Input
Amino acid sequence: MLLFRPIKPDDLRGLMELLQNSGHGLTSLPKDEKILTQKILHSKTSFETSELREKPAGESYLFVLEDLFSGQIVGVSGIISKIGGFDAYYFYRLQEETLRSKMLNREKTIRTLHMEKTHAGPAEICSLFLHPDFRSSQNGRFLSLSRFLYMAENTKDFESEVIAEMRGQVDDKGHSPFWEAVGHKFMDIDFLEADFLTMKSKTFIDELLPKVPILVDLLPDEAQKVVAEVHPNTKPARHILEQEGFAFNGLVGIFEPGPVLEAHLKDVRAFKESKVLTIKEITEEPIESETYIISTSGKPKFKSCLGRIEFLDDDTARINPVTATALSLRREDKLRFVTLKP
Output
């Protein structure tokens, strides 16, 4: 049984062990104990002060996926309530223009990248990583979509628009062909160092990267090919989000230009189709149903798991003791649920 729940300070060691398998892909969670400690504490504060806020202000929520039988942390994912703030958030906007020549009877579509920054951006889902040994049985979908049940329970804490910046093409050694062709020319530092520096501040991006458009066709072929392309390991995550209603909006990352997917939160399937029921029975009898993502609802501390539900009517249901124990639910408590797939 895997349990999705908010991260706790004593999860630090388990998170560090999990991230040893992440290569250079999870740049938002570097393998640095001091930075991870700060992120966990920021997350803890964000959860604890939720009821005190009237609107999002850049809070960060981290969740882990725990194997209840072993206690191992096997996954992590996060939400940022609103990107930007004091430290701006940067993107490139990819634009296309078709040029035509009657004289030569030729036409050519050119791509340009235009830097954009925001101090008041949308919410962002981020920091998704699942241990390779657990990438089966819909665990990746469960880890990704459980965040939207939390957002459905706490809608006021998040912006109405939500984005997901997909991991771009960086190899196992941390080499980014786009960074070598663009960023490195102006900063004279490697990709991993630049990405690590953004954990402290992003002002150096504004100070050193040129504001003029970048003509993609003039970049080396290797750099051109990765613009708006995801890393092979990220294709399943992109597919899941696109099934949920996310779409590429023309923005790409600033260092390794993976695509940025965007959606209206109210239109995300797992958010809008999730429902709340009252538990009328907890039964040992087998429940024949499809598998749902089931979470707590209302006052109980948020957590979710995969389980089965037998619907008694439109408002009530029965669940089995395993689900009830995992989520600390009792009769007359409420739960929120949604199907795993559209």
